[in-house]
Amino acid sequence: MSGDVILSELSRIHPVSRETFTRLKIIVSRIEEWQKKTNLIAPSTLNDIWNRHIADSLQCIRLKPDARSWVDIGSGGGFPGLIIAAIMADYDESSVDLVESIQKKCSFLRQVNRQMNARAKVHCARIEEVSSTIHQPEVVTARALAALPLLLELSSPWLLNGATALFHKGREFEVELADCDGLWDFDLVSYESIISTDSVILEIKNLKRMRNRRSHA
Q1: Residue among 122, 168, 120, 123 at smallest CA distance from 23
Q2: Res 212: pLDDT
Q3: So what's the pLDDT on residue 85?
Q4: Domains held by the chain: number
Q5: In this structure, what CATH number is given to the domain that contains residue 166?
Q6: Which of the residues in the chain have pLDDT under 50?
Q7: Which pLDDT value is given to residue 152?
Q8: By the 8 A CB rule, do 143 and 184 touch?
Q9: What b/e sequence results for 156-194 when a residue is b if at least 16 CB atoms lie within 10 Å of its CB, and e otherwise?
Q10: Domain span at residue 44?
Q11: What's residue 98's pLDDT?
């Protein structure tokens, strides 16, 4: 597809400026380069990167278009974190924190962030190690990181203080929701993915720990 066609398709999900599109092309170019030596995304999805990864990540912005402070945990190959950073680069009063524990992937995230001239901050550490030092965001995101009970535990320092979560999940999400019974209470909205019929995005807010938490054993 031509650049104009790709831009048009992306803008159906969320408005994408020419400047932002240039930043998104940097992400794609660097992934294609790094993918030869580091497994950032599933090789089978590389030829469909604009749809499977870029457009899919843009759904977070579509759902929370007014949010200006974001934390992406387990950022890996940059989805959705780098896409959010590319969008937020258009806004002076914004912040994006990317948390990733693997050094090679951190190097990738930092290189792309710098080349996009975005303002994301990359934290090369385990989520538990930096959760107390990252400012309170409006939205916490994660994609293909962990099962929902663990995701809620990892993001709880922010969610318990009022942040909203947007978690990409597959069709098995109802099983993961059941696994949260007795552990967490929260308000949930499930959005059908407009990219894949096999995916949803879970919006979780008003997280509370249950008093009588059952054992993980």
Answers
A1: 120
A2: 61
A3: 98
A4: 1
A5: 3.40.50.150
A6: 215-217
A7: 98
A8: no
A9: bbbbeeebbbbbbbeeebeebbeebeebbebeeeeeebe
A10: 3-209
A11: 98
* CA-closest candidate to residue 57, choices 109, 94, 6, 10: 10
Residue 59, in any domain of the structure: yes
Owner of token pair 């995701």: 151
Six token digits for residue 69: 């402070």
Nearest to 24 by CA among 139, 69, 13, 101: 13
Calpha distance 68→91 (Å, rounded) = 8
- Residues pairing with 201 in the sheet: 168, 191
As a whole number of angstroms, the distance between CA 57 and CA 31 comes to 15
Mapped onto helix, strand or coil, the DSSP state of residue 171 is: coil
In-domain check, residue 98: yes
DSSP string covering 92-148: SS-EEEEEE--HHHHHHHHHHHHHHT---EEEES-HHHHTTTSPPPSEEEEESS--H
Sheet holding 139-143, edge to edge: 121-124, 95-100, 69-73, 139-143, 164-170, 199-209, 184-192
Does some domain include residue 216?
no
Alpha helices in the chain (DSSP H): 3-11, 18-34, 49, 56-63, 81-88, 103-116, 127-130, 148-159, 173-179
Q: Which two tokens stand for residue 149?
A: 């009970």
Contact 62, 86 (CB under 8 A): no
Beta carbons of 140 and 130 less than 8 angstroms apart: no
Sign of dihedral through CA atoms 59, 63, 69, 73?
A: negative
Distance from C-alpha of 200 to C-alpha of 187, rounded to nearest angstrom: 16
pLDDT tens digits, 66-114? 999 999 999 999 999 999 999 999 999 999 999 999 999 999 999 999 9
